[in-house]
């Protein structure tokens, strides 16, 4: 699960769905706005939003590692290998083309905006809160169980895989060296990991039955979150701005 | 009683509990390949395992959820949920038609799944991400492009090779796991009986 | 009328030819503590699953006979009714963590949430059972990060919170150290004093001799002896059936063979000490070291 989120920040303290609507509206606006510059401005605004939410460090790191890498490769591939007539410069057998570069920048900023919105959203919302909010919107309790228990299971299995690998090392199995040597470690690590986990499912299934998992009564929530008046205001304002931009964009097309 | 005959439904409790484990296996498998610096993706073993044991729909759910959960940290995973969906469906259907039982059928299944993965992933990479496949394979794709190959063909060629290797290994690992699962566990899943050698029936 | 009535139950697991439970008929009285003993593979866990209603539903296979709870067949109860009537604790502590919640407090509350109990009542009950099981200090911890013994106590707390009348407990201490075993038996003892009906599978026979009321001894899927604990455990022939007996019983038997017959059936240490004091008091002979 995501680490402690600072709920004293006003943006972070919003109801998950409110933040989710902001993220979606922002991403759509970034897609429909014309030109590279407007998309770049969008991305700058997103950075400001992340800064204001007090999670800039984590935001920047995740953006860099995901969309950032993609952006660079994208620019290289499109500039040098896409078809185009306007040659910017050439070296050896390569020639950089303006059409490719522009296409890459446009697509790159669209991706950076969409990816950035989602990264921002998950950096300021715990999965637990988001799943709970979705459950209140009608997500089945079984689906929410699958998501929550997966998030719990990943670190447990990760830790176990490390234990198994360390045990292999202690027995003298090489985990470094040629590709074949390394590949040979994979199977004896993953197989016992899966086996021990699957064999526990029978008892866990009975445990869940014993805790009323399949009972069809409407369940209560001990840990609960509710939208506040400010959430309504923020949602309405977001909606209005969103409609304004969309209408503006359509009008711009028609003129 | 409500639990009666629930054992083989598409989403029995056993399947609901298998999905989180399978997703965790996908994620840990993916991390393990990068830790061991193995150059193929082995992040769909859980999906193939669920497909082989429990059928196409649970496997598709496992695949899509794997991408959504990975997408929390890295949103570039999200569009590929489309591929994972079809990898799940195809592995489930292959198992339904007894294509996971013998080693030769597994080889064919591995190639079929690899084809499905390639056909679904190529358009996403080309049209969503402008040809950037991500990771080390980007370099190979770029190298191909430098020799004058079209972007879409370069991406397709890289995928078909890496996917064939990756999915063959994944199908193989999933089947190794199924072989060692006890019979009493296997019978709880829809296609489990296909993998029990000494049936008393 | 017996509380739980198991009538001529025979059960065969899927894919197996031989039945695991063979024509078992046992009556369970309300408020009593029953221990099920027997060698490995004698059908103890299977019998538990039958009483809880997991067999044949969850495990499939073929079951003959009927299990009645308060005069009504288990099959006539809904899942919710069974959950609130019969609680179940297993052997493996890790597998009893649901994975649905990320702290112990909410983990214990999870069953009550599923049953739709009001939040205020949930809090009250959770705090009560935390007190009872000594888990309050773990409230904010992630259940997956606890030790086996702690997880087992959380499992007990989670079931206790649902306030079932019957507890089916399957080898709760087999993976625990002596200290944690003691804590678990302490909890079971408290449950007994609360008037709960307890059905426990356990290998630690000395603890059974001390805490249980009645014993059901199984061999190869059949009940070989069933009744009050003194009557069952003083039967030396059970050893041949793969059932361990308390050291005290063996000692008493040894005494009997050497011509010092104990007056009562002796199965616990305390009883043995008392008996020895009686003998010493009469004969005035010093106890040989």
The largest beta-sheet of chain C arranges its strands as 6-7-8-3-9-10
Beta-strand fraction estimate of chain C: 15-25%
Distance separating the two termini of chain C: 51 Å
User: What fraction strand of chain B?
Assistant: under 5%
CATH architectural category of the largest domain in chain C? 3-Layer(aba) Sandwich
What's the CATH superfamily of the largest domain in chain C, by name? P-loop containing nucleotide triphosphate hydrolases
How many domains make up the coordinates of chain C?
2
What is the CATH-assigned architecture of chain B?
A: Orthogonal Bundle
Would you count the extended β strands of chain B for me?
A: 0
What order do the helices and strands of chain B follow? Answer: HHHHHHHH
- How would you classify the helix and strand content of chain C by structural class? alpha/beta
- Helix-strand category of chain B: mainly alpha
How many alpha or pi helices of chain C? 10
CATH topology of the largest domain in chain C: Rossmann fold
Q: Sketch the major β-sheet of chain C.
A: 6 strands, mixed
Description:
The complex is a heterotrimer of chains A (255), B (201) and C (289). By secondary structure, chain A is mainly alpha-helical. Chain A has 8 helices and 2 strands; from the N terminus they run αααββααααα. Chain A folds into 2 domains: 16-125 and 226-254, no CATH class; 133-210, no CATH class. A two-stranded antiparallel sheet of chain A has the order 1-2. The longest helix of chain A has 32 residues, at 179-210. With 201 residues, chain B is mainly alpha-helical. Chain B has 8 helices and no strands. Chain B has helices at residues 13-35, 45-54, 56-73, 81-96, 103-128, 137-146, 151-180, 183-186. In chain B, α1 runs antiparallel to α2 and α3 (56-73) runs antiparallel to α4. Mean pLDDT of chain B is 88; it is low at 1-7. The termini of chain C are far apart. Chain C is globular and about 65 Å long. Chain C has 2 domains: 4-245, Rossmann fold, CATH 3.40.50.300; 246-289, no CATH class. Chain C contains 10 helices and 10 strands. Chain C has helices spanning 44-52, 79-85, 104-114, 119-133, 148-160, 178-193, 205-211, 229-233, 247-257, 269-283, and strands at residues 4-12, 21-28, 33-38, 62-69, 72-73, 86-89, 166-170, 197-201, 214-219, 222-228. At the A-C interface, α6 and α7 of A face α2, α3, α4 and α5 of C.
